Amino acid sequence: MQITFLGTSSGVPTRSRNVSSVALRLPQRAELWLFDCGEGTQHQILRSDLKISQLSRIFITHMHGDHIFGLMGLLASCGLAGNVKRVDIYGPSGLNEYLQAALRYSHTHFSYPVKVHTVHPGVIYEDDEFIVSCGLLHHRITAFGYRVAEKDRPGRFDVEKAKELQIPSGPIYGKLKRGETVTLADGRVIHGDQLCGNTEIGRKMAYCTDTIYCDGAVQLAQDADVLIHEATFAHQDADMAFQRLHSTSTMAAQTAYAAGVNRLLMTHFSPRYAPGNDIELKDLLREARAIFPKTEMAHDFMIYDVPRRREIDSKSTIHN
Ligand SMILES: [Zn+2]
Ligand SMILES: [Zn+2]
Predict the structure, then answer these.
(1) Which ligand places an atom closest to the C-alpha of 37?
(2) Mind listing the pLDDT tens digit of every residue in the chain (320 residues)?
(3) Which pTM was predicted?
């Protein structure tokens, strides 16, 4: 599970930060999932190491332009240039009508299937390895946060040890791999757990933007390995955060703290904190770290490898 930030500015792009989009690479299955798709997201993908041909799912938080204006361009290019097989898009009601209207008036046809799923709080996608759920946030319009959870996997089956114990290969191995107890023809009772390594704990990522501090975000982020949370404003500008229903950096940190996450990555920064201004982004980072020390500030093209639980803290996982 590898996260790449493609846009970290709120509202409008700046010279160094594009508007919202986060890519999640799932290397084990050569898939790319996107969270939000602000204008210019396809250009950002081209400038990254991500492969557009691997794009398979897009999750949209809400219908504000800085989160969706890149969608039509990206989807149209996927048909012309990429060899995308199928894209499933998840988002609030209105998203399908928006795309249908854009298709109709721009005389665009996708050369591959695109399916839009209108989401409601709860589980919105599940397969053998992943479960994706969404929950309501608190913003000026309906906005959803997303949680991607990798399922726990049984530990690696020790084939060598099984051979040493002279357990006949075949279906018995399958049972033991699943942790079941098996009685062999010679009467020996073998517990699968003895032959399997420790369970691999699945990784969990939560993506919460745009929102002011709310219980929905805390619930969604519960025990996550990484929380990506918006921090549009500095604490000093909290009145603007309340007016526009965005978060301050301290609200993002409070959410991370309340949810007990392992790491907070802040994004969606107001351009007003550019270097040289009274308040700068480093001040937002300082404020957040006072509450939740394991906070980082995202920047465009920042990559974060979500570590497995046992790897946590043993190595740095952020490449700049
Ligand atoms: Zn926004
Ligand atoms: Zn918004």
Answers:
(1) 1
(2) 999 999 999 999 999 999 999 999 998 899 999 999 999 999 999 999 999 999 999 999 999 999 999 999 999 998 887 689 999 999 999 999 999 999 999 999 999 999 999 999 999 999 999 999 999 999 999 999 999 999 998 788 888 888 898 898 888 888 888 888 999 989 999 988 888 888 889 999 999 999 999 999 999 999 999 999 999 999 999 999 999 999 999 999 999 999 999 999 999 999 999 889 999 999 999 999 999 999 999 999 999 999 987 644 444 456 65
(3) 0.90
Q: How far is the CA of 124 from the centre of ligand 2 (A)?
A: 21
Task: Indicate if 49 belongs to the active site.
Answer: no
Ligand closest to 143 (CA) is 2
- Give the 3-state DSSP-derived string for the chain, with helices as H, strands as E and coil as C: CEEEEEECECCCCCCCCCECEEEEEEHHHCEEEEECCCCCHHHHHHCCCCCHHHEEEEECCCCCHHHHCCHHHHHHHHHHCCCCCCEEEEECCCHHHHHHHHHHHCCCCCCCCEEEEECCCEEEEECCCEEEEEEECCCCCCCEEEEEEECCECCCECHHHHHHCCCCCCHHHHHHHCCCEEECCCCCEEEHHHHECCCECCCEEEEECCCCCCHHHHHHHCCCCEEEEECCECHHHHHHHHHHCCCEHHHHHHHHHHHCCCEEEEECECHHHCCCCCCCHHHHHHHHHHHCCCEEECCCCCEEECCCHHHCCCCCCEEC
The class level of CATH for 2-153+200-319 reads alpha beta
Q: Name the residue ranges covered by the structural domains of the chain.
A: 2-153+200-319, 159-194
**Ligand 2: centre distance to CA 62 (Å):** 7
Q: Which residues are annotated as a binding site?
A: 62, 64, 66-67, 139, 210, 268
Catalytic residue among 36, 49, 66, 300: 66
